[in-house]
Amino acid sequence: MKDYNQISSKLQIFLSDYLAKSGAENFVIGISGGIDSAVVATLCKMVKPKNTYALIMPTKFSNEDNLKDALTLCKKLDIGHKIINIQPILDSFSGSIGEKLSNLRSGNLAARVRMSLLYDYSASINALVVGTTNKSELMLGYSTIHGDLACALNPIGELFKTEIFEFARFLGVDEGIIAKPPSADFYEGQTDEGDMGYEYEKIDKVLIDIEKKESKKKLLGKFDNALVNMILARISRNKFKLSMPPIAKIN
């Protein structure tokens, strides 16, 4: 297990230094009721107890337990928060284009609407939007460009999902948030692990070896081949999400 005391200290310094250099006064986080945003909100609260804010942005698909957990977290941390139901925005978009959106399109739209609201709110309170995407999601591309990937800074992007579970316990996040299946609530019954077909515990073992530059041959000899092929395909297909868009060189 990693030294989470040291990691916590480093991340608090990272957040504090970046905020000071930016000239902003506050942090703002999108709180979902899930473990990643709970960890980030806890860290921000530790750095700026009176300058941390949250938006809770449910849709018609949002699990009632997630909404309750989000509110409980905000009250426990004593951070300012607002609830904005984004379903009318999603319905208006669908109505305007005259199409019923697929689960993928609807989920991506919800992520981008949430980030638009976060950035609008950040402008009103002179805040930095703090990202909540972990390393597993980044490597797999399990995220939305201009949605949950958009942020001013990200304190947890070097922690795998399984490490987020450990870190959350270290930080004192409620066990109810830690124990439930991770979900973006993009549609009814959706879970991250259900989307990918494997548990994060299995996925992260492969990702850790990939980060160590293990060959595909070694990976296939060590892990379930379908799992390895799924992960390698996702990494290849989604690696563009980790880079700025290319700019044509004409000079």
Overview of this protein structure:
It is a single chain. The protein is an alpha/beta fold and 251 residues long. 56% of the residues lie in helices and 7% in strands. The chain contains 12 helices and 4 strands. Helix 1 (4-22) packs across helix 2.
**Range of helix content:** 55-70%
Strand content: 5-15%
Distance between the termini: 50 Å
Number of strands: 4
Low-confidence stretches: none
Strand order of the largest sheet: 3-2-1-4
**SS class:** alpha/beta
Succession of helices and strands: HEHEHEHHEHHHHHHH
Number of helices: 12
Alpha carbon gyration radius: 18 Å
Tell me which oligomeric state these chains represent: single chain
The outline comes out as globular
Mean pLDDT: 95
Largest sheet: 4 strands, parallel
Secondary structure topology:
Layout (H helix, E strand, L loop, with lengths): L3 H19 L3 E5 L4 H13 L4 E5 L7 H14 L2 E4 L3 H11 L5 H23 L1 E3 L5 H6 L20 H11 L3 H5 L12 H5 L3 H12 L4 H7 L2 H14 L13
Parallel strand pairs: 1-2, 1-4, 2-3
Helix pairs in contact: 1-2, 2-3, 2-7
State the main characteristics.
251 residues; alpha/beta; four-stranded parallel sheet
Explain briefly what this protein structure is.
The chain has helices spanning 4-22, 35-47, 64-77, 87-97, 103-125, 135-140, 161-171, 175-179, 192-196, 200-211, 216-222, 225-238; strands spanning 26-30, 52-56, 80-83, 127-129. It has 251 residues and is α/β, with parallel strands linked by helices. It has a four-stranded parallel sheet with strand order 3-2-1-4, sandwiched between helices.
